[in-house]
User: Fold these one by one.
Assistant:
Number 1:
Amino acid sequence: MKVQDVSKARSQLNTRATRANEGLGTFDADNIGIGRYIPGSSPWERHRNGDELLFITDGEVRIEILEDDGRSRVELLREGSLFVVPKGLWHQLTASTNVNILYISPSEDCADRTREHPLGRDA
């Protein structure tokens, strides 16, 4: 057991001009960390082995989720927002300014990532 200083980790990330992640530990088989996102879009990703929890600590980010039927859902997550991405759904984050996100993600061995739209659509 270790106490994590999330404020300190967040402050350190705020000095970075690039995207970065700081691991904070584990929760059962999941990874806990805080990520620094810069303007632009992340790769598309999905976690086949569990849900992913996102908590916006600073800034705001748009998340697009592809539902099982192929429809797209877009949400704006602002500072203080908590969002759970359901297991197996493709999602992509797009930031217009810097944003920090505390996350709990399933282990990487069942994650898929791509820069191309998962359904072959133009971005």
Number 2:
Amino acid sequence: MLTARRFVVIGHVQGVGFRMFAADAARVEGLSGWVQNRPDGAVEVLAEGDRDAVQRFEAKIRRGPARSQIERVIVDDDTPSGRSFGFTIRA
């Protein structure tokens, strides 16, 4: 079943390789979407794909890369687009 989720990851998540970590994790799971830094210091992620793959991805970003410190992850369901557009790192 196709699903999409938007994540806002709060904590020490910028300047620690979080976007690359998330992109690599998404590619391993075969997900589409994007990751970007937010002006408030959080990182925002949109991931779309198979429900089980999105759940595995969520578990990975809740841990984050070694240098990150995750304080909280806000998760919202989104509407899947149904398009496979790869996973990108936004500036």
Number 3:
Amino acid sequence: MREVPILRGDEVRAALDMSSCIEACDRAFAAYATGGAELPGVIHLEVPESRGEIHVKAGHLHGFPYYAVKVASGFYGRDPAAIDGSVLVFDVRDGSPAAILLDGGYLTDVRTGAAGGVAAGHLARDEARVAAVVGTGIQARMQVAGLIAMRPSIEEVRVWGRRSERATVAAADVAAAHEGLGATAAPSIRDAVEGADVVITCTASTEPLVRAEWLAEGTHVTAVGSDGPGKQELDPEILRRADRLVVDSLDQCRRLGELQHALDVADRAVELGAICAGLEPGRTRSAELTVCDLTGVGVQDVAAANVVMQQLAR
């Protein structure tokens, strides 16, 4: 048996940029919507004594050279939370191991930000200028990176967090990462959200944080944090009022996403992949309120892993 390369965090970081990941994830969502992907159900494991959550996701994209299995964990009984992950990559020709990515969850971080970028590319207004970010963790940074990649018109980012000092640090990191971007910590969620063209939520909340009455017409909302039973960041009325309600996986969002709290409008939800594939429209009017509920699907991990492998082969 040939030796299987083990790639550490720095190597994966060097091989996975946001723009390439967005492009790959857009293709992956389209494949998922059109029968071009194999995607088993997600395995969830709870470690309640440590507030630990482990997700096992796998998938194969037809025509891609590698399939992948990912184990991602978040232990929220610590401060800060302990986030980790690894990806096993296999050759589709014979199932032989091609690489082990011991990246500390970096691939998950980037592909989640890339999914937000895909959503923004199809659903946010071209002229969007102001973004609000609810949350101060790594996804606050990654979601802004994905958004900026697709909407370079963004000029201002307002960050809110339960701990103001973390919001200040997150805002400083965002500003430093994107030249010319103004980023500040907001004193309240309402102050962050009101008047924003794009609203991003990326917390582990189990209660609604963003209220429907704070959102202006034409706003796009990307909700990332709800990926398990009971999690919630949005007032369910936001989903009910949405002119365009989009999910990454209808079945998964019914069980794990914001949609679990607004099942009465589930029949209006459109999968993001159908929009990526051109089967459904994205935003059609400037005044539309658009919402994208992202729970994370395995095809994103496969797409990101293929980007890493292809970059390393060059």
Number 4:
Amino acid sequence: MRVIAGKYRSRKLTAPAGMAIRPTSDRLRETLFDVVAAGVDGSTWIDLFAGTGAIGIEALSRGATMVHFVESSLRAVHAIRRNLSELGIQSGYQILERDAAVALRVLGQRGVVCDFCFLDPPYRRRDNYEKILTLLAASPLLKVGAQVIAEHEKHFDPGEDFGALHRDRKLRQGDAVLSFYRLSSQRNVTTEDTEEHREMC
């Protein structure tokens, strides 16, 4: 696992042995950041179920101003801190060792607003998708034009609509899928793309 691009390009990221963490693959991270590239510089991120912190660290590497890492596992939090330390990242981030739903309420109370929110719950906890996406739809955390990106397995669809939050794009790569959501006022025509389709184009 490595940082794909930016200031920390090609630097390795680690996860403690034996942890039940499923890091977003390098290829899927590359696909994600290809899609959002134009908006990353100067942006604020919320990285929910952050695991090793790979998504948030990739954002910082590419010029994000602030990343809020949210992770409930103490061992995973130690992994995030280690990766940040080994890269020499000393500012531009906050780590919340809390349940994702609780962390969203805390961030909202603190007046945090984000440009991007990424969530990758454990695949066995499918109920987390509906819970978190519904909370985000009703929260003050999303800036105008903000994107919420959910990673999920290809055999599970978290859904199109969660209150004011609507899916406007879906990208599949291998066994994983990225679903992109925006508030209804910024909804675009729904598109579905696949790795195979992009290669054909």
